[in-house]
Amino acid sequence: MDLLDTRLYELIGEEGFTKLVAAFYRRVPDDDILGPLYPKHDMPGAEMRLREFLIMRFGGPETYALKRGHPRLRMRHARFHVNRAARDRWVSLMEDALAEVALPAEATMILHKFFDDAATFLINREG
Ligand code: HEM
Questions:
Q1: Of the residues 73, 94, 125, which should be mutated to test ligand 1's pocket, given the most ligand atoms within 8 Å of the CB?
Q2: For residues 59 and 100, is the Cβ–Cβ distance under 8 A?
Q3: Cα separation of 95 and 6, whole Å?
Q4: DSSP state letter for 45
Q5: Ligand 1 center to residue 77 CA distance, Å?
Q6: What is the Cβ-side half-sphere exposure of residue 4, based on CA atoms within 13 angstroms?
Q7: For ligand 1, atom 27, which residue shows the shortest CA distance?
Q8: 49 lines ligand 1 (CB under 6 A)
Q9: Radius of gyration over every alpha carbon of the chain, rounded to an integer in angstroms
Q10: So what's the pLDDT on residue 1?
């Protein structure tokens, strides 16, 4: 993990992550690829899990781990059909969300790289 990563929470705070994840999840339900994969009845819950995970990953409070334990993201995504198209769409919605919330340029760069790599790592189906 890059040293800068642990300073991101200092830089954008809970508010930065909250705005970003809200902007992302606003785009999910109507998306033709991602919409059907997410829990319709629990979008606020899904939003909270991603927000708390990112806050922890980038140097903030460890609320996510206290509630859910070790992230084990590959395992937690195993039951979802994450192929290249789903991965690309996820990254593209997140890029739109990053553009919308306009965080400081350094923060956007760090997050962009993280999402790009992490989403590739989560691909678990070929087609
Ligand atoms: C950078 C990439 C990604 C990160 C950091 C990420 C992170 C997360 C986290 C933290 C959760 C909640 C896990 C839990 O505590 O149970 C989650 C759930 C989920 N993710 Fe991802 N994810 C990423 C990419 C993707 C991609 C590419 C897909 C494509 C289909 C996807 C689909 C889902 C779905 C459907 C859920 C279930 C929603 C829920 O109930 O929380 N994710 N993700």
A1: 73
A2: no
A3: 21
A4: H
A5: 6
A6: 9
A7: 87
A8: yes
A9: 14
A10: 63
Residue at 54: amino acid letter? L
What gap in Å lies between CA 127 and CA 16, rounded to an integer? 35
The encoded tokens of residue 25 equal: 């999840």
Please give the DSSP secondary-structure letter assigned to residue 60.
S
What SS3 class is residue 80? coil
C-alpha–C-alpha distance, residues 122 and 102, integer Å: 26
Cα–Cα–Cα angle for 102, 13, 104, nearest 5°?
30
Please tell me if the CB atom of residue 48 comes closer than 6 angstroms to any atom of ligand 1.
no
- For the chain, 127 residues long, the average pLDDT of each consecutive 10-residue run is 81 98 98 96 97 97 98 97 98 98 96 97 95
For ligand 1, say whether the CB of 75 is within 6 Å of any of its atoms: no
Count other C-beta atoms under 10 Å from residue 52's C-beta. 22
